[in-house]
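User: I'm putting together a small comparison set for a docking exercise, and I want a reference complex before I start. The sequence is below, and the ligand is zinc ion. Could you produce the 3D structure with the ligand included, as C-alpha cells?
Assistant: Of course. I'll restate your input first, then give the C-alpha cells for the complex.
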Amino acid sequence: MQKLRWHEMTAPEIEDAVREGHDVIFLPLGSVEMHGPHMLTGCDTYIAEALCLLMARRAGGLVLPPVHYSWPGATRNFAGTIRISQEETTRYIEAIVRSLVEQGFKKILLVSGHGGYRWLGPGFAREFFERTAVPVIFMDVGMFRDGPQLSRVFEGKDGSYREASLLLGALHILGKDGLLDLSGVQEDVAKQPTPSFGRVARYGVIGHDCGTLEQHVAPRKDASRDKGVEYLKLLADRFAQLSSDLDGYLEFLSKKQSRS
Ligand SMILES: [Zn+2]
C-alpha cells in the first residue's frame, strides 16, 4: 500500500509519490493541552492526524508530521497544557507553509483538530494568499457543519460526547486503540457554575480561562468509537468532492496571473 506519512518516507519515496499524483499536502494542526480529567493531552493532534490520513487516502496526498504546539485558548492554568502565543503559532505555521511553497507545492491544506485555530487559521489563510497568491486552505474539524449526513452522526449529543467519540475514532484509525479507556470515567464530578460572562458568547468574545478541568471537557463514558470513525470518514469523503473544485480554482488563478 502507498505510504502517506511524510516522516515515514525517504526523500526519493516522497519525490516518486508526488510525481505519481500525491500532490496534496496535509498539515495536521493540534494542541498540547488539558482535556478534562479523562482525555489525552494530545486529543486534538490525534483527531487532526487521523482526518488528514483519511483525506490523503481519498484525495491523493501526503501527510506531514503534525504541529503539536499551539495557542491553547483557555487551559493555560492546568497541568498538561503547553502554551505558546497566537503570534508564535502563526509564524511557525507560516514557516512550514513557505517551505512547501518554495518546493513547488500548490495544494496545501491545514487541517485543525483544535478549537484555538479557529481564531488564527482563517486570518492566516486569507493574508498569506494576499502576500503570495498561494491559496492555502484552512479547515477545522468543528467548522464542517453542512450536510444532513454529518449532523445526524452526533444528533442530540453535546460537544463533550462528540469530542470523546472523535478521539476514540481517531485512535482507532491510527492503530492506537487502547490508549484511551473511558469505562471508569466518573461523570458526576461537581461542576462549577458557568461564569457570569456566559451570555457574552452569544453576542461576542471576551477573554477567559477555564476554571475547572470539566469545563474543557466534561467527562463522558458513553462516547462511541464507531460514531467517531463514521464522522471522520464522512468528512474525508466530503473533502474528496471538494478536491476537484480546488484544481479548477488553481487553474483559474494561474490563467489570471499569466494575463497580468
Ligand atoms: Zn480538543
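The chain has seven helices and four strands. The pocket of zinc ion is lined by residues 35, 43-44, 114, 163 (CB under 6 Å).
User: Thanks, that's exactly what I needed.
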